[in-house]
Structure formats: C-alpha cells, structure tokens
Amino acid sequence: MPHFPKPAPGSWTEHYAELGTAGISYDDCVSPEFYSAEQEAIFRRAWLNVGRVEDLARTGSYFTKELEVARTSIIVVRDREGRVRAFHNVCRHRGNKLVWNDFPREETSGTCRQFTCKYHAWRYDLDGSLAFVQQEDEFFDLDKADYGLMPVHCEVWAGFVFVNLAEEPEQSLRDYLGPMITPLEGYPFERMTDQYVFSANVDCNWKVFLDAFQEYYHVPVLHSQEATPAARPKIKGFEAPHYQIDGPHRMVTTNGAPRRTWPAEFQYPIEIATRSGLFGPWNEPELGPDLPVNPGGVDKWGMDNYQIFPNTEILMWASGWYLTYTYWPTSHNTHRFEGRLYFPPARTASDRAAQECAVVMFKEFALQDAGTLTGTQQGLEARAVGHNFPLNDQEILVRHFHKAVADRVADYERTKTGV
Ligand code: FES
Ligand SMILES: [Fe+2]
C-alpha cells in the first residue's frame, strides 16, 4: 500500500487547501429541503453497501434491505449461477411487497428456490424472472418475459455487496471506490466469519452520528472511561497521526500499542480476565504479511477507519478484526445506525469470551457516542448559532464530509436546472 507523506504538524486541513479553514454550517442536518435533495442527489445515485457475501452463503440465500431514504425495499439474492443480484421488492402484478415475514416494514432473510407473492401467488425465480402466474389464461396477452422483478444495479467488491439505485450508475463500483479504497481488497475480510450485528434508531440526522466517528478530538472527554483512572492522563490530548482524503472518501489512522503490553493498572479486571477489550481480543490471529493497512506508515499502528461515501465505514484493527458502521437516513432528523463486528472464527470458549467482551465494550462506547446525539440535533435545530461552527485540525474529516455532501447536492441541482 503506498505511503503518504505526513505534512507538517497541525496542518492536515491546510494540506487539503480546497477545504478552507472557516467555520462550517450545520444547516445540512436540520433542513427537510436539504434532506430531500440528498435523497435524490446522493442516495439514488451513489453505490451503497448493503451487506456481505457471507450473508448469502448458498444458492437461494437472500436478505431484504429497507431503504427508506430511497422510499424502497430491495431483495438481494444469490442466484443459481452464484451471482449476487438485487431487485426492487415489489410484485409486478399489483405492487405488493414480495418478500417479508411478520411485518412488511421489517427486514428479513432466508433461503428459498423461488419468491412467492403472498397476495395472488405469482412466483419469481432467483434471477428475477416471472415463473408462474395463477390462472394465467385469464389475463390478456400476458407475456411472463415482460414481468420480471425490477432489477437494481448490484456489484460486489472485496465481499462487500453494493447496490446503486440510479437507472445507469455514473461509474462502476471499482471506479467509484477509487485508488484509496480498492487496495483494501487484499485484507482477509473473508476469513472473519463470526459476525455480531446491532442496529438502533437514532434521533438525529445521519451526518451528525457519522461525524462522531470521524474525529478523535472527543475521545479523552466523552470516552474518558475507556481508560482506567491510572491510564486516564495518558489519553489526555489524544491525536490521530494520519488522515487521507480521496474524492468523496476519507480515512483516519490511530495508533496504540497492543493492549496486552499495557501495565495491569491500565486494564479493567474484565479485560485481564477475558484477554480482550475495546480494541479487540489480545491474542491476535495470524493474518499474514503485507496487509493493506497503515497507509501513513505510522508507528504503533492501531486502527484504520475508512469512510466510503456516503454512509459506510470500515474499521480494521491491529488486533486482527474489523467492523462496519452504516447510517441509513429515515428522515431529515432521524436515522437507523447499524454496527457489525467481524472476527475470525472462535475455536475455543476463551476465544468466544474474548469476542463477547470486545462486542460488549463496543456497544458501551457506541452508546456513549449515541447518547450525545439527540442533544446535538436539538442544539442545531435551535438555529441559535448561525453558520459558524469552528472545526479544528483533528476535525478535518468532518469538514471534508459536509463539503462532499454539499458538492454532490450542488452538482445534482446544476444538472437538474441545466445551469
Ligand atoms: S400482487 Fe403479487 S401476485 Fe398479485
Ligand atoms: Fe466516540
């Protein structure tokens, strides 16, 4: 992986001159009109990560994904040729939602040979073609070949399944991901098959929560309990050592010595008991040489956090596991947050306990982040402050993210008006 030079200390933002250093506006997080523009300009045009290939292990494995932001639901399925496909979750007869379980608005998953509509029992093959129409001869000139499920563009990169709701995507998935993200395909994501999934409905704009995971300025304050009282002075003034930006995508690296090397008074008892904690299990798996990590070449590499525009983050940890976050808007001031943690398979009960400890710690710290968000949204909606929220150098990715969103919305508005 190419290494990028570290600019002079304290100058990350100035290194990317197009970002400027002025305060930013948070109108993009409180305006219903701006949210409508994002729905069209971003979520109906960008590649969106909806899951992993491990979620589609066999022929006929499928899951549904509710995409409220695009006012649709999709089915993602592995067909008989092994290809991963996506379709709008809509029956071609009279528009019934095709795949759901007990509640139409809830996501579901499973394995099947065909999809059968609950209304009049039309059936669709795994490739979306219409296979069976009840009392077909009562219809008028109905050619089943004309009534397959409506396809959604779907591509797989490094085992991550992406969809694109545009009629014709502007770029292939690989071109969209670009030179900063694509080298990650050398990481052994496919070996990390023990998966823990969480989701939460959060009362804030999707960007407000994303901002909380792209700067570490807040860590010593909001997450002071991350460190034991003895270790707390150590995390004071914590700073990330490397940032990188490519197109609409971003990344940040943090460092941290392996937790197992820390003195005992810097560990909580549960960490010592399970040999695990917030940064993952201490017994790192052997993942092989030349992993595509640490592009800044920092000392004591701890973690890379990649943010794939618009709403996916992948965090790869030195302790040999990774997690993803996705933020699905449900309105201008609400969203659904999904966290997934992936580990190499546990071989022993101790491995499993170590995973569980990392997961519980993750939930605790994510809750600390989430706990501030309703208050932030409320503060922003007061519109008391105007347009000048000052960002420091460690908040460079916050600055870049809001600019990337604004640029895309402005581009779209320009194409629409032809100006
Ligand atoms: S709406 Fe699906 S079969 Fe009638
Ligand atoms: Fe945090």
UniProtKB/TrEMBL annotation:
Keywords: 2Fe-2S, Dioxygenase, Iron, Iron-sulfur, Metal-binding, Oxidoreductase. It holds the Pfam family Rieske. It is an enzyme of class 1 (oxidoreductase). It comes from Nocardia halotolerans. InterPro entries: Rieske_2Fe-2S (IPR017941), Rieske_2Fe-2S_sf (IPR036922), Ring_hydroxy_dOase_asu_C_dom (IPR015879), Rng_hydr_dOase-A (IPR001663). Its EC number is 1.14.13.-. Residues 47-163 form the Rieske domain. Its cofactor is Fe cation. This is Aromatic ring-hydroxylating dioxygenase subunit alpha. One of its GO terms (molecular function) is dioxygenase activity.
